[in-house]
Amino acid sequence: MLRRLAGDRLGLMSSAASRYGDASKLTIGPKSLYFFNHPDHARHVLTDNSANYHKGIGLVQARRALGDGLLTSEGALWRTQRKVIQPAFTPRRIASQAGAVVAEAARLVDRLRSRRAGEPVDVLDEMTVFTLGVLGRALLDADLSAYDAVGHAFEAVQDQAMFEMVSMGMVPTWIPLPRQRRFRRARAELYRVVDRLVAERSAGQTGDGDDVLSRLIESTGQESDPEVGRRRMRDEVVTLLLAGHETTASTLGWTLHLIDRHPEVGARLRAEAAAVLGDRQPTHEDLRLLPYTTMVVEEAMRLYPPVWILPREAQRDDEVGGYHVPAGADVLICPYTLHRHPEFWDEPELFRPERFAPEQKAKRSRYSYLPFGAGPRFCVGSSLGMMEAVLVIAMITRELRLTAVPGRPVVPEPMLSLRVRGGLEMSVHRVA
Q1: Burial of 212 per CB tally in 10 Å (0-12, 13-18, 19+)
Q2: Distance CA 250, CA 126 (A)
Q3: Cα 48 to Cα 78, 87, 233, 320, 432, distances in angstroms
Q4: Residue 139 pLDDT > 90, yes or no?
Q5: Staple 24 to which of 20, 31, 101, 295, CB 3.0 to 4.6 Å?
Q6: Which of 7-11, 204-208, 226-230, 265-269 is least confident?
Q7: What is the pLDDT of residues 158-178, one digit of tens each?
């Protein structure tokens, strides 16, 4: 079991779901993982009794890099953090950031268009540059283009977090393994970036006072101990940088991969973008006029959810779907397998954007589809992520066609979120 967890986590979860049904217990060394794979189970753990389930295995290990940021904190601290940043994600403010998204998308299209025909491009790297650009402009009111090492630093951080999860934390962190050294260098780089951003904002060089960074500076500045405030600031911004760019970049990479494998989908996307946008740049109001593009992105997130596992730890004894869950148990909800549950998805391995037509969505359980989680911990940035994905896919497919480089297999490798290991190489062609 430990070997399978280390080498094929998606295969392990998929085989458990297909062999044992909606509830199974996976015993790995001293750990017992309670795996639930039904929408009713997900609703109970994530929403109805969410107070009993704190963040669990994997994200606990991530605290070495993320500290007590919004992704890993609990209780009163989490509620305070959510209250501080929530105003930056109101529908009105997100709508006002459409211009920033379009500007970064236009820069991305220009970079792709400048490639020679047939020249390979690492799409995941390009999507990371794009999403970091949006994150900087929309949430931090800062230019992150000078910090090109941030994306690679997060890869090292995620590698270490997954290693600690798989090894059950039994490998001492003081052992100078290569991955440990990479992790420490990456963490130091992230801290350096955060400190510089905070210093520039505190000096009044940037910002309008309404962005997340300004709100965090004000909130953490109220700590009685300046060192506690500084540590909180680092935790929050590092978490925001990770959660705000990596999941959307992964979604975009997989979406372009699926469009390449289904030319008829690409043709329909181009037709919709041309009909709605013509030669102009999109606006926030165009989102409702791009329903097929939205359906394509939603179906991509069904097959390759931006977060493949939602781990929790039971605080007290509970019963989930008739099964006893003892206090302290590690509980797993897996969107990757839930999105393929044959009871709720017809031919679940096939890519069919029509599944997300309004009439089809109305027939399904709300908890059969969890790309952004559910309950109180529902992703605060979901609206921004969807706006980014829909607008940039419309802009790319209107002008360019990306095709997978022959002989370069695409292998999914789940970490804290589902990533494309080694990149996703494609070549760029102009649409005639």
Answers
A1: buried
A2: 11
A3: 18, 25, 31, 11, 52
A4: no
A5: 20
A6: 204-208
A7: 777 777 766 666 777 777 778
Residue 347 has which token pair?
């031919």
pLDDT band at 51, cuts 50/70/90?
very high
Place of tokens 């991955």: 179
User: Distance between CA atoms of 353 and 272, rounded to whole angstroms?
Assistant: 14
- Integer angstrom CA distances of residue 221 from 193, 195, 215, 225, 233: 19, 14, 10, 9, 9
Predicted confidence (pLDDT) per residue in 362-415, tens digit:
999 999 999 999 999 888 889 999 999 999 999 999 999 888 887 665 554 443
Determine how β-strand 418-420 pairs with β-strand 310-314: unpaired
- Which phi and psi angles does 356 have, rounded to 5°? -105, 20
For the stretch 72-79, contacts whose Cβ atoms lie closer than 8 Å and that sit 24 or more positions apart, written own/partner, are 72/239
Confidence of residue 421 (pLDDT cuts 50, 70, 90): very low
| Per-residue pLDDT reduced to its tens digit, 302-345 | 999 988 889 999 999 999 999 999 999 999 999 999 999 999 99
Angle, helix 226-261 to helix 263-277, in steps of 10 degrees: 110
What pLDDT, on a 0 to 100 scale, did the predictor assign at position 3?
76
Among candidate residues 52, 16, 11, 51, the one with its CA nearest the CA of residue 32? 16
CA angle, residues 364, 369, 371, in degrees to nearest 5:
155
Mean pLDDT of 90-103: 92
Other Cβ atoms within 10 Å of 347 Cβ, number:
10
CB 69 within 8 A of CB 236: yes
Pair of tokens at residue 428: 């760029």
Neighbour-count burial of 300, counting CB atoms closer than 10 A to its CB (0-12 exposed, 13-18 middle, 19+ buried)? buried
Closest CA to 226 of 206, 198, 203, 200: 198
**By the 8 A CB rule, do 313 and 328 touch?**
yes
- What CA–CA distance (Å, rounded) separates 225 from 228? 5
Mean pLDDT, all residues of the chain: 85
Q: How far apart are CA 397 and CA 332, in angstroms?
A: 37
- Tokens linked to 318: 């509970």
